[in-house]
Specification:
With 313 residues, the protein is an alpha+beta fold. The protein is built from 9 helices and 11 strands. Bound molecules: (3R)-3-hydroxy-3-methyl-5-(phosphonooxy)pentanoic acid (PMV).
Length: 313
């Protein structure tokens, strides 16, 4: 049997603009994890199980865009295995789906690690390799992913990321003072692919204006990296607020997200913004320990379906 896990993630700065080559910053949420286990199951063929979702199917019956089958196929291709031995792949996840927390990337990364290990190819599974294969799986559901999700869930460190050719820029950096976040779920699911497509349409219609908005997001991410390295929490909070303003201008916030952002700031958060694709999903609020409880209560009172705390260090 082989088992592997991968964490969820939040985007701290630069979602959407990152698709257009601007820098962005993301961090893992290590207490929320996806887990994949592969066990030998002689005589049963290749079975895909997601017990939380009531899924138990043969790989041969899986839809062409099935994410579990897609991750296994990536491992087969990359390891040169043309036929899998009989096995059961079981996936569980604590990361809510379609909510901006990187659930798809974490599930794919966990499967890729566990399957490579099960096939005796664990030595191949460097972070670069797992991240590249995870990116291929992400493409099925995201269309044109920037690559930031697979990078942060595989490296499991805060990353400064720029999508570029021939290789993305991926830099880890020191976090001078722990960043205490509350992550609040609107409870509304939002498909990343649809929101990314909506931004692309607006960019096509108003290219100059959107290029300026993306430039603004990129500059905020640059500034945030410096603020994080200097431990300037108040500065990080201000940059988050400014990023939220630009995301609103891109029409990716929503009434629910705006309400949670406003509630967090009014109850003492140093800054707040949506995180991920937007139009639902999660928002993040930067808090100090003494304000954490009041901000949490305010988020719940303003409709958050779940509030998680996470410290980035
Ligand atoms: O919604 P999520 O967690 O998949 O985040 C998407 C981030 C975007 O910048 C909107 C898209 C991307 O591929 O980077």
């Amino acid at each position: 049997m082989a088992t592997a896990t991968a964490p969820g993630k939040v985007i701290l700065f630069g979602e959407h603009a990152v698709v257009y080559g601007r820098p962005a910053i993301a961090a893992p949420v290590s207490q929320l994890r996806a887990t994949a286990s592969v066990t030998a199951n002689v005589g049963a063929g290749v079975r895909l199980l997601a017990p939380d979702l009531g899924i138990d199917i043969a790989m041969a019956e899986a839809a062409t865009d099935d994410p579990l089958a897609a991750a296994l196929r990536q491992v087969m291709k990359a390891t040169g295995v043309s036929r899998l031995p009989d096995l059961s792949l079981t996936v569980t996840s604590q990361i809510p789906v379609a909510s901006g927390l990187g659930s798809g990337a974490a599930i794919a990364a966990a499967i890729i690690r566990a399957a490579a290990d099960f096939l005796g190819q664990g030595a191949l599974a460097t972070p670069e390799w797992v991240s590249a294969l995870t990116y291929e799986v992400e493409k099925i559901h995201h269309g044109t992913p920037s690559g930031i999700d697979n990078t942060v869930v595989v490296y499991e460190r805060p990353v400064y990321f720029v999508k570029q050719h021939p290789a993305n820029k991926i830099e880890t950096f020191p976090v001078a003072v722990p960043i205490r976040l509350l992550i609040a779920d609107t409870g509304t699911r939002s498909a990343t692919k649809a929101v990314v497509a909506a931004v692309r349409q607006q960019w096509q219609a108003e290219t100059e204006r959107f290029e300026r908005l993306f430039d603004g997001c990129g500059q905020l991410a640059e500034g945030a990296r410096v603020a994080i390295q200097q431990g300037d929490l108040a500065g990080i909070g201000r940059l988050m607020n400014e990023n939220q303003r630009l995301l609103q201008l891109m029409n990716v916030s929503s009434g629910e997200l705006d309400r949670l952002v406003k509630a967090a700031r009014a109850s003492g958060a140093l800054g707040a913004k949506l995180s991920g694709a937007g139009r639902g999903g999660n928002m993040i609020a930067l808090v100090t320990l003494d304000r954490e409880e009041s901000v949490r209560q305010s988020l719940v009172a303003n409709g958050a379906s779940q509030v998680i705390s996470s410290v980035i260090a």
